[in-house]
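#structure-requests
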Amino acid sequence: MQSKTSSFNRGMWIQSMRNVGWIGLVYLLVLLFALPLQLIFTFTGKVEPYIEKPDTLFDVFGGLEFVLMFVVPVLLGIFLFRYIQTKIAADYIHSLPIKRSTLFHQNMLLGALVLVVPILITGIVTFAVKGVLTVENVYTTGDVLSWVGYSILINLFVLTGTVLAGMFTGMSVLQGIFLYVLFLLPGGISYLAISNVKFYWYGYAYDYYVNKNVDSLIPFLHVAKLAAHKSFSTSVFVYIGLIVLFYIVALITYQKRRVEAATLTISVGWLKPVFVYGVTACSLMLGGFYFGSMKGGFSWMVVGYIIGSLIGYIVAQIILNKTWRIFTKWKGYLGFVIAATIVGFIIHLDVFGYSTKVPAVSEIESVYFDEDIYRLTDKPENYAKGMNGYYEAPYYYTSKETIKSVRQLQKQITASKDKKMDPEKQSEIEGSNGKIAVFAYKLKNGKQIVREYFIPFSDYKAFYKEIADTKEYKENFHPLLRTQNTDKIKSVSFSVPGKSNSINITNPEKVQELIHVVKQSMMNETFDEMYSTEESWASINFMDGKGQYVQEASWEKSYSEVEAWLKKEHLYERARLMPKDVEKTEVFKNSSHLKNDYRLQEDFTSLTKDEKSIKVKNNQQVETLLQRANLRDTGDYLVAFYYKDQVDTPQVYMLNENELPNKLKEKLKEKLK
């Protein structure tokens, strides 16, 4: 036997190469098929006109590269260190005069080469293919370098993560499972925690925290977003840091790992309770979230917590001990239940005052107040090339008067009886009366407080009116009012439900005239008109020269200035539904008290079989019904319009007693006798 260990072992290198070399070869062939070959198939010869150029090279084959990034390095990491998971191989390899650190560095170097070389070859071939494509500018040299760079980065990240996971278990199957759990755990725990807290804290902005935090904590989702943008991202440094961290921790763990750890579920002693109670905690939250969402009510959530935690604890103990005989471990579960009960009690009491927190006016720099919470987490890069329209930053009110009014509304909401309402019973607030209220305060100390409520609008109309009377609020309510540079708007189209031949205005002078008129109508709109449930005449789409949306607005029936302008331009009848566009109109008594929700179409079909109706043929009466068609939650009567362009699917609206013309009421009464 040698008296000293070597820093490099050629025999082990060759043996390892035989074990994993085939993975690199298969990876290379798949990459060549998925990228350069697909580019040749798609962009040589006669190219179909509807085929678009890919935004990045990751889009060429439907994201197959993303799948490979989270499969190939995992298989490679498992095979590279397969010997530490079997007793005979572990005993033999570690008895050789080779340092563990040398074995580790050699295997990691080999793994990196097996992944990087196919990527570099594919990148070179892709660059060469660019010269034979018949379509110009499909991709640039920068696109190739970006693809190569991100591919190498993420492959090394997954490889080091797989090796790290393997150091904590003695089973190859569990190594792969632990790796995916490691990637899903931060986002999964965050999601479950957020999903459970929303049941306890009134006003908890669930969607805000999910959109802001969860996606960025799950590599599968974050990598897809990262690679979708050509520009350099600071997230690259995060992944480099994680690669270095995983590498160092895996090396240290490998050097201290006992040979006898092979075939053990968990190879490190301190990790065993972390595994058991981690699985139990996740199962507890999953059970509470599931039962709370499905059944509602605190008692059902408790049932979910008990069932979920019990299943989680039993499964974790079975996996850890590799036997069903785990009934002597009940003391550990009892201790977990006591700890979980204390934590749950603290959250339920809301000891930090989350539900009642309303910042003082002196602390507030500005406030966002709207129905849409997604704009708070939306990002400009989601609108690259105008594919989804133009990015619009969330609007924050800065006027002290408006801030006071918004704050007063939130204070009233938190103090009202609605605080006791179960968030999962929001449907009890009738549809058109229910309103989402989102508050986001930017504080002078740099922090932000976000709250979201679902409230009965009628109870807070006075508070809304006080806010809506400000010019600042109207500019937020109608984004078109704060669009300064309207020169980029090159065309305006009217989208009319049930009418395919709508109008499109492209004359630059007429476009600017119409923008001015729409803004004028918006500024003249009263509070009741702003929150009216009447169906609008049409959707107005303001587009740039490339046909991408710049802004959109509704042509409300109260917009008299827009109506006058369209009549002057002889476009009025083309821009809205007219009686001549309606094939058939029917009126029903809403004796079944149908509601205007997602079930209306189905319920209405059964209603037409059982209830008597009147058919309205007089054009003047049809016009009156079109003018009064309402989207409110319920009504005394139902009016169904069968449009000529979609005669098989009626559009159903609600009318109250005072909105139905007397002649039609009398006619319907006669019919029902």
